[in-house]
Structure formats: C-alpha cells, structure tokens
Amino acid sequence: MEDCEIYFPVHDVGIDLLVVKGKKHVSIQVKESRYYTKRTHHSWHVISRKKFSGKETVDFYVFLTYLPKYGEHKMSKFENKFIIVPTPKLEKLINRKKVDKRGRYSFYFNFEGKKVVDKRDKETGYSEYLDRWDFIKSALGIS
C-alpha cells in the first residue's frame, strides 16, 4: 500500500500487523492455511472465541490460503488466496458457527473460481471478501 508503514509487534498482543498511514492505522490478524486437496478440498483456519471478547479486537482478519497450482505433471507453485474481513462483519458471520471443545471457531474455505464458501456452513458465502484490499485502503484513507 502506498506510503504506508507496516509494523510487526515483538510480543504477541493479538495483532500480527499494524499498518500506519499518517495518523490513521489499522490492525490485522493473519490466519494462514494450506489447501487440503484429498477428499475435502478446503483450507482450515481457526480463531479462538476469546478474540471476540472485546479485549483483543483487531480491525481486520486476513485469511491466507496457499492453493496448489498444478503444471503438466505435478504441483508447480502456490496461488495465494486472501479473504479480508472487517472484524464487525466477521463477528456477525460467526453467530451461526459452533465453538469446538477448545473454544475455537473453525473456517473451512472452499474456492471455486471467484466463489468462496465455508464448506461446513454452505449458507455463508465469503466471495465478497476475496481480495478486498480496498477495505483496508479505505480505512487508511487511501483511494
């Protein structure tokens, strides 16, 4: 992003990246996963329920999935898929999710072109969040 400074906290404070432009800033939590291609075809990202307790909120969650790209004979590289969700939107989306025994929400993203769905909750689409860097730019006042 143009003319921004990016900071990585030295200690784990629940924020992976702090992006600053002038006097504006946004905090980002990054969740990454490889894409599982045997039988299931999805990524798997986990967020603790504690993250939504109001104490450790971040501005955006970025779900990064490493999707294998296949050449003629074998996998040749990875394509990065980014799902960028403002925290208030994600809080609404997790209302239909169940918490596991460890107090975590799981996200199982399936990619079909530009269509993204949570494999365990097919009613919840995430397509509108695919590569939405404009959300972060807008929060920083970048047009």
Task: Give a short summary of the structure.
By secondary structure, the protein is mainly beta.
Describe, in plain words, how this protein is organized in 3D.
Strands 1, 2, 3, 4, 6 and 7 form a six-stranded mixed β-sheet that branches. This protein has 143 residues and is mainly beta. The termini are close together. It has one domain: Trna Endonuclease, Chain: A, domain 1. 10% of the residues lie in helices and 47% in strands.
Task: Describe the secondary structure blueprint for this structure.
Layout: E1 5-7, E2 17-21, E3 24-36, E4 42-43, E5 45-48, E6 60-70, E7 75-86, H1 87-93, E8 104-107, E9 109-112, E10 115-118, E11 121-125, H2 133-139
Parallel strand pairs: 3-6
Antiparallel strand pairs: 1-2, 2-3, 3-4, 5-8, 6-7, 9-10, 10-11
* Helical segment count: 2
Structural class: mainly beta
The major β-sheet equals:
6 strands, mixed
Number of domains: 1
**CATH classification class:** Alpha Beta
Roughly how many Å is the radius of gyration?
A: 16 Å
Say how many strands there are.
11
Envelope shape: globular
Q: How much beta, percentage-wise?
A: over 45%
Please bin the fraction of helical residues: under 10%
What is the CATH-assigned architecture? 3-Layer(aba) Sandwich
Average pLDDT for all residues: 89
What is the chain-wise order of helices and strands? EEEEEEEHEEEEH
Q: What is the straight-line distance between the termini? A: 11 Å
**CATH topology category name:** Trna Endonuclease, Chain: A, domain 1
Low-pLDDT stretches are none
